[in-house]
Amino acid sequence: MNSPERCESLAQVRAEIDRLDRDIVALLAERGRYVLAAAPFKRSADEVRAPQRVEQVVAKVRQLAAEHGAMPEVVERIYRELINAYTDAEHQRWQQR
């Protein structure tokens, strides 16, 4: 594992990004399993959408981004898309209950 500053070629940078992508996808899979596990506990479609929870999560990840030296605006955009996609999947699971 190289730090970004220690990479000596584009190939090294890409290899590290690929490594991170493997980790990120594994974490997304785990997060998705928890999202789907939440569906049976919700009583209505509004509870699935949970706009207040969305805003809590966005605020939390913006703070985490700032703490880790990431770009909070980018992290927020990514999370809003992530939440929308997972909410759609959770809603489908909720309707099947």
Task: Explain how this protein is built.
The chain is an all-alpha fold and 97 residues long. It has helices at 10-38, 45-49, 51-67, 72-95. Helix 1 (10-38) runs parallel beside helix 4 (72-95) and helix 3 (51-67) runs antiparallel to helix 4 (72-95). The N and C termini lie far apart (44 Å).
Secondary-structure blueprint of this entry?
Elements: H1 10-38, H2 45-49, H3 51-67, H4 72-95
Order of helices and strands: HHHH
Termini separation comes to: 44 Å
Structural class: mainly alpha
Task: Please indicate the percent range of residues in DSSP E strands (runs of 2 or more).
Answer: under 5%
Please provide the count of β strands.
0
Number of helices: 4
- Using only CA atoms, what is the Rg? 17 Å
* Mean pLDDT, all residues: 97
Biggest sheet details: none
Shape: elongated
As a percent range, the share of helical residues equals: over 70%
Low-confidence stretches: none
Record keyword descriptors for this entry.
97 residues, mainly alpha, single chain
